[in-house]
Design goal:
Layout (H helix, E strand, L loop, with lengths): L1 H9 L2 H9 L33 H12 L2 H9 L2 H6 L11 H29 L6 H5 L15 H29 L12 H12 L12 H19 L8 H59 L17
Helix pairs in contact: 2-3, 3-6, 8-10, 9-10
Subcellular location: Cytoplasm; Golgi apparatus; Membrane; Secreted
Main location: cytoplasm
Organism: Saimiri boliviensis boliviensis (Bolivian squirrel monkey)
Length: 319
């Protein structure tokens, strides 16, 4: 289908979610030839996480729009330009009243959630004089001027925000790997938690300024969480370095090498003991030789002639 190819080509997160939520066309079955047919509940394919801070709201709007047959048919026939230009959003006026009511309720819930985030930010920085409307304008995926009704403008803003936000998130993930990689080589060879957080803070400060009222600190912390999750997933090894057979073979080789080293160590120990024995024997002979020399010197000093081989006295011949 042409619209599937276009959607995949431009990587629109909104349309990707719609594709995964579409149900398959049922196949006709001849019930006269099939008996004991038990209904099987089809597994619902969960749309992928877009990484956007309004991801849940986006998915809920998609689910509700999918229940309207007219809008679903228009979506299947629309090309990418119709979606991006906002012409498809005008079809919202033709959906059923029941669908519009559900969309209105979803928008009210989302506005309430955003107001809670704003209140949390105000409480955290304790700045009573901050402009509430300026904070609300940060959330560009809905029309905050009409918090009770889901209008075509809301759908158009949601599509554009999802497209821009998704592209930004993907580019951010790609640049994040290049940002962290040079910092893996440090004094200890590891990138610890404190170093990671310092890198995240450095990059986030380029985009978010705590002193700027238009910069949402809640969104900044959500970006920090996504950064941490992405880096941890990139550093986890999903593939084993060795199979079980290779590991066993390697262990056997190591065991053989250890045995060879043990034999060599035993031989060296025996050689050391033999050398020590020879050294001790030589020292004993040297000691005995010195003792004999001393005895001969003493006898010479006392005038006793040296003894012969049989112990007899030897006299010097008279001249």
């Amino acid at each position: 289908m042409r619209w599937r190819t276009l959607v995949l080509q431009y990587c629109l997160l909104l349309i990707t979610c719609l594709l995964t939520a579409l149900e398959a066309v049922p196949i006709d079955i001849d019930k006269t030839k099939v008996q004991n047919i038990h209904p099987v509940e089809s597994a619902k394919i969960e749309p992928p996480d877009t990484g956007l801070y309004y991801d849940e709201y986006l998915k809920q709007v998609i689910d509700v729009l999918e229940t309207d047959k007219h809008f679903r048919e228009k979506l299947q026939k629309a090309d990418i330009e119709e979606i991006k230009s906002g012409r498809l959003s005008k079809e919202l006026d033709l959906v059923s009243h029941h669908v519009r009511t559900k969309l209105d309720e979803l928008k009210r819930q989302e506005v309430g959630r955003l107001r809670m985030l704003i209140k949390a930010k105000l409480d955290s920085i304790q700045n009573i004089g901050m402009d509430h409307q300026a904070l609300l304008k940060q959330f560009d995926h809905l029309n905050h001027l009409n918090p009770d009704k889901f209008e075509p403008t809301d759908l158009d803003m949601l599509i554009k925000a999802a497209e821009v936000g998704g592209s930004r998130h993907q580019e951010f993930k790609t640049s994040l790997t290049n940002m962290v990689k040079p910092h893996y080589v440090n004094s200890d060879g590891f990138l610890d938690e404190q170093e990671l957080e310092a890198l995240f803070t450095k990059e986030l400060e380029k985009v978010y300024d705590p002193k700027n009222e238009e910069d949402d600190m809640v969104e900044m912390e959500e970006e920090r969480l996504r950064m941490r999750e992405h880096v941890m997933n990139e550093t986890l090894d999903q593939q084993q370095f060795f199979t079980e057979e290779e590991l066993k073979e390697y262990e056997n080789i190591i065991a053989l090498q250890e045995n060879e080293l043990k034999k060599k160590a035993d031989e060296l120990q025996k050689q050391k003991e033999e050398l020590q024995r020879q050294h001790d024997q030589l020292e004993a002979q040297k000691l005995e030789y010195h003792q004999v020399v001393q005895q001969m010197e003493q006898k010479k000093l006392q005038g006793i002639p040296p003894s012969g081989p049989a112990g007899e006295l030897k006299f010097e011949p008279r001249m």
